[in-house]
Automatic annotation (TrEMBL):
Belongs to the CCN family. Pfam families: IGFBP (PF00219), TSP1_CCN (PF19035), VWC (PF00093). GO terms for biological process: cell adhesion; positive regulation of cell differentiation; signal transduction. It is found in: Secreted. InterPro entries: CCN, Growth_fac_rcpt_cys_sf, IGFBP-like, Insulin_GF-bd_Cys-rich_CS, TSP1_CCN, TSP1_rpt, TSP1_rpt_sf, VWF_dom. Gene3D superfamilies: Complement Module, domain 1, Thrombospondin type-1 (TSP1) repeat. This is CCN family member 5. Residues 94-160 form the VWFC domain. It comes from Calonectris borealis. May play an important role in modulating bone turnover. Promotes the adhesion of osteoblast cells and inhibits the binding of fibrinogen to integrin receptors. In addition, inhibits osteocalcin production. One of its GO terms (molecular function) is integrin binding. Residues 14-90 form the IGFBP N-terminal domain.
Amino acid sequence: LAKTTCIESAMALPPQVCAQLCRRPCYCPWVPPRCPRGSPLVLDGCGCCKICARRLGEPCDFLHVCDQSQGLVCDYSTAPAGTGATCNFEDGEEGCEVNGRVYRDGEVFQPSCKLQCRCLDGGFTCVPLCQEDVRLPTPDCPYPRRVEVPGKCCPEWICEAQERHLLRDAGAAPGAALRPYPCQEWGTEWSACSATCGVGFSTRVSNQNRYCRLETQRRLCMARPCPALPAASPAVS
């Protein structure tokens, strides 16, 4: 391997110190290290061997350099006696790391087509870019369904054909109600019969119907038969 010279560092070390830290010639492993996601392979502080660049908040020194592509430098400002330095932004601003990439404080970014985020005070907040609306069944679209559309990021609502929906439900368990979407059944108890004797009706409020909508339901009832009327007495002449 060819000999190398000590490269400039953030510490601005004098040449004699660099000569002590960087051995000549340099010897590097045949197989370069496997770096974690978001940490690229870079030359060490001696400009000799490939190492994994240190990321935001990770320890660093003259040999173990920070990821300059992310605007990071080895910050010795909070390190006593020049020890315990960490990678930080050059201007001292806080940043955040998402999916292996570092963003500056205040920077707006999109980790996916469905989210827009903003880096703020070392953390980040996101807002959805896809509408989370709910479409209820209507007479012109009784079977709405949200599907992923090829080539589009956000899912869209479509009106499923009634014939297809009925065919799909044909294989359901016998007696199962045909509903265009999952329904959690709810209802009140049946009221007392409206007539104390004979045929009357009782009511309840329930969503146990085809469209899972609350409605007042009625049914016939009879508490007991009404007593027979007494026979009329024959008229006395």
